Amino acid sequence: MKQLSAIIRPFKLDDICDALATIGIRGMTVTEVTGFEQRKGHSQIYRGHTYVSDFIARIKIEAVISDERLDDAIAAVVKEARTGKDGDGKIFVLNVSEAIRIRTGEMGDEACNPPFYGELSAS
């Protein structure tokens, strides 16, 4: 198993989530983060005052994926996240030695990919 962590532009989140769901990856953690890039110092106006911010808002997606699905997941993220401009993001892949679903006690790949029950309906 591998942990895929991707730092992406916020407006690309829905496209990437849809692409990952298409290949069967439905469970992930999404976090709002800020980052420091090579290009720094963009100006922002807050309450009438201009200030320079070195940090840029990004989204971090994390998912634990079976080795067999990893290449497809990376390809999906790259395809959907790429704009061709500076700041498109980064992908990191880490080894995961074990995963355990607390509720059921499932271990390994079974703990990472929830069963698919079809479309969720609003009740």
Architecture per CATH nomenclature, i.e. the level-2 architecture: 2-Layer Sandwich
Strand order, largest beta sheet: 2-5-1-6
CATH class wording: Alpha Beta
Give the termini distance in whole angstroms.
35 Å
How many domains? The number is 1
Q: Tell me the structural class.
A: alpha+beta
Poorly predicted regions? none
What's the multimeric state?
A: single chain
N-to-C order of helices and strands = EHEEEEHEH
Please tally the helical runs, counting DSSP H or I stretches of 4 or more residues.
3
What about the largest sheet?
A: 4 strands, antiparallel
Described by the principal axes of the CA atoms, the overall outline is elongated
Cα radius of gyration in angstroms: 17 Å
| Number of beta-strand segments | 6
User: Into which percent range does the helicity of residues fall?
Assistant: 10-25%
Q: State which percent range the strand residues make up.
A: 25-35%
Mean pLDDT: 86
* CATH fold field value: Alpha-Beta Plaits
Could you explain the architecture of this structure?
The protein is α+β, with helices and mostly antiparallel strands. It has one domain: Alpha-Beta Plaits. The protein is 24% helix and 34% strand. It is built from three helices and six strands; from the N terminus they run βαββββαβα. The protein has helices at 13-22, 67-81, 109-112; strands spanning 2-8, 29-36, 42-46, 49-53, 55-65, 90-95. The strands form two sheets. The chain has a four-stranded antiparallel β-sheet with strand order 2-5-1-6, with helices on one face. β3 (42-46) and β4 form a beta hairpin. α1 (13-22) runs antiparallel to α2. The longest helix is centred in the middle third of the chain and has 15 residues, at 67-81. It is elongated. The chain starts with a strand and ends in an 11-residue tail after the last helix. The mean pLDDT is 86. Keywords: Phosphoprotein. The modification O-UMP-tyrosine is found at residue 51. InterPro entries: N-reg_PII (IPR002187), N-reg_PII-like_a/b (IPR011322), N-reg_PII/ATP_PRibTrfase_C (IPR015867), N-reg_PII_CS (IPR017918). It holds the Pfam family P-II. One of its GO terms (cellular component) is cytosol.
